[in-house]
Amino acid sequence: MGNLGNIKIADDVVRTIAAKAAEDVDGVYKLAGGVAGEVSKMLGKKRTTTGVKVEVGEKECSIDAYIIVKYGYHISDVAKNVQEAVLKAVSELTALTVVEVNVFIQDIKIEEIVEIPEENA
User: Fold this and answer.
1) pLDDT digits (tens, 9 = 90+) for 1-59
2) Which of 87, 82, 86 is nearest to 105 (CA)?
3) For residues 118 and 121, what is the distance between their CA atoms, to the nearest angstrom?
4) What is the pTM of this model?
5) What CATH architecture does domain 11-109 belong to?
6) CA pair distance 93, 4, nearest whole angstrom
7) So where are the chain's domains?
């Protein structure tokens, strides 16, 4: 059987896979959107891939993930788990060779504790 043609995986496909994998890691609060994410939010556009940048070639790709970590989690462990999850998901779903996964910690999310006042009886 001869050559059927080319297969090209769009950057947005890789970005979506990487974003989903990163967001599913325990300790990740969310992806950090930056200015583009805030503008999209104001315009009412939902971008689940904000916070992930990719460079996709014919057989390889590199990925940058910008995340916010939940307070109380060991930052380097969360970052390493993001790298491993993104590498695994993108490799398995696209068959691309992932050259690198860079993780940038943009912030820490501290959950607010709401105290309920006691009533004096």
Assistant:
1) 568 888 889 999 999 999 999 999 999 999 997 555 555 555 555 555 689 999 999 99
2) 82
3) 9
4) 0.80
5) 2-Layer Sandwich (3.30)
6) 20
7) 11-109
